[in-house]
Amino acid sequence: MSTVLVISGSPSRTSKTEKVGEHIAQRLAAAGRTTEHLRVRTLPAEALLSADVTDPAIASAIAEVAEADGIVLATPTYKAAYSGLLKAFLDLLPQFGFAGKAVLPLATGGSVAHVLAIDYALRPVVHSLGARHAVQSFFLLDKHLSLVDEQLTVHDDSAGALTDVIEQFTKALDGIPHSTVLGRSA
């Protein structure tokens, strides 16, 4: 079974975006996938911003990306773009850091006016990192997400579409020849 790394790019400890990432990780784990969740905000800020790839935490995070078969990028939308925190991390990856991987770009935001931020800002970076397959991006409105006692609820207006996107991502993962990804055997 494939390994999926969810990368959350929100700087907030109480982020709905991060909870969406956890939600996706839990759903994929329930379907038999091995999942990890990298919260970029927990990486050492000085090492991240100075691109110190020798820092143990940064090196470990980069290794997690290299070992994953699939990547979920979860970011809040700020000023019509994905988060600078996520950008700082993606800039540390090797030129083809997503080679052979399926990638699900996902964003949250307060207005549908930001929907295209995924396709015009994040998707080109995903492709430049050499993703084998970038599935349909998905945008969740903040008003469709609620947190009660740290538990995420996705409003019915978005829940079905989110399920469809997760299914597309799962199908893309199934298309990866595990024996050839990074020289590992299935």
From TrEMBL:
Keyword Magnesium set for record: no
Pfam family, one: FMN_red
Keyword Flavoprotein set for record: yes
Superkingdom, natural source: Bacteria
Molecular function GO terms recorded: FMN reductase (NADPH) activity
E.C. no: 1.5.1.38
Gene3D superfamilies named among the record's database cross-references: 3.40.50.360
Keywords: Flavoprotein, FMN, Oxidoreductase
Coiled-coil stretches: none
Catalytic class of the enzyme: oxidoreductase
NADPH-dependent FMN reductase-like domain span: 3-142
PANTHER family cross-referenced by the UniProt entry: FMN REDUCTASE (NADPH)
The protein, known as: NADPH-dependent FMN reductase
